[in-house]
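Lecture 7 notes: from sequence to structure.
We start with the chain below.
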Amino acid sequence: MEQSAEASAIDPGTGTENLPSTVGALRQSGWQSRTVKQELRSNAVARIRSGKPLFPGVLGYEDTVLPQLEHAILAGHDIIFLGERGQAKTRMIRTLTGLLDEWMPIIAGSEINDDPYHPVSRYALDLVAEHGDNTAVGWVHRDQRFGEKLATPDTSVADLIGEVDPIKVAEGRYLSDELTLHYGLVPRTNRGIFAINELPDLAERIQVGLLNVLEERDVQIRGYKVRLPLDVMLVASANPEDYTNRGRMITPLKDRFGAQIRTHYPLEIETEISIARQEALLPGHDSDVDAPPLLLPHFMEELVATFTHLARNSSHINQRSGVSVRLTVANLETLVAAATRRSLRLGEVEVVPRVSDLDALISSTAGKIEVEALDEDRDAEVIDHLLRGAVLTVYKQRVSGPDSAGAVTSLVEAFEDDVVANAGDDLPASAYIELVQRVPALQTLVAHLAGSEPGDSPATGSSIGGLSPGVVASAVELILEGLHLSKRLNKDSVGGRASYRARA
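Predicted structure tokens for the same chain:
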């Protein structure tokens, strides 16, 4: 993490052992006080100048959302993200802490991170008045300078702002004494970043209280007026429909945000795949030594991502609730799990997902989409329709182009000569190898579809350009199912087994 010019006067290293321990020592070190927004801006400038990403791990927003976010930070604005679920809003908010200085000095023992040079709480003011430059200084790591609250209808002023502590009153303090207060989340995030998720769900009276703290700096707790000149960067998230149409946000609080940033789902299939690879918990060679090694053909990843994109454009799916990227992640994990189970049952030496494993995606999809009311009790049917659409889309993009038209025609003619192909989750990869060896046109298409897939599997017996038997089997199933969905072959299904034959 780059340190600002002011912060570079002291080097915190990996701990706080060598850092100033009193206000006087802090002055001698050259440390200067800044607002949290000045701190974020300074560190953002240093990172942009060095060419390092401000938000590592956030994919698909390079040309849309991230430039707007950088503008807001450089301008020192409070920010609200508008977007449906699963659009990395919370990830970006939490990543903001990486732009804070690693360590920040406070008055030791302060509940609200009082600035050693400009204390605001009664506790810190009294301490500095008594000890002056000998006042003890503590250090707070940037990870502790982030506060977060999910807005719910039962959120109270006490949760966010604070409340009179009856224990302190019972100890003999007067109600008018500021030391009787128990501070809420916002004051405790002083000199840091405070995030509110689903902001419109806050009751209007709570929104007013929040506005007073962030704008007017005055708040009344049990009739006692406390002035809290807090230094907080406010970041919030909201569903666009709640924020713009239903009128559940008070206008003054809307006006408090300097930047309103609209997020979106991945625009490209490859971006969706990259996010799924980053987030999915998939078995690997080192992480799961008891399972066979995983080979994940790229065309199967495309199929899972295409399914999500089709769902986002389907009239059968409630688009107001969104179709999250988490659907792609969960489906990819489920697809690999189904392939792993099949491989273990068949005693195969590798895990390669196939089209016949797609039925498992119904369980991981049903809880993440909302089927329109007119389609109630048809969830499985709608999901199956979208899965078939994804298979057909990938088949058309990867197999049935002009370069392979001749091979497709030859393959269909081979089926007209009484070729019958079986597929299913109970067939080992060797059965598909035998089929490919009997039908030269199928071999050509398999090589065309999976020629760029990895071939370093420990499996043996492949005769298709070094491809592993599992990848060959996966490619064969996609080709056969694509021909069926293109109305070039007939398909008979019984349980998990399917037979493909000519359309005579």
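Points to note: Residues 269-501 form one domain. Residues 1-9, 454-462 have pLDDT under 50 and may be disordered.
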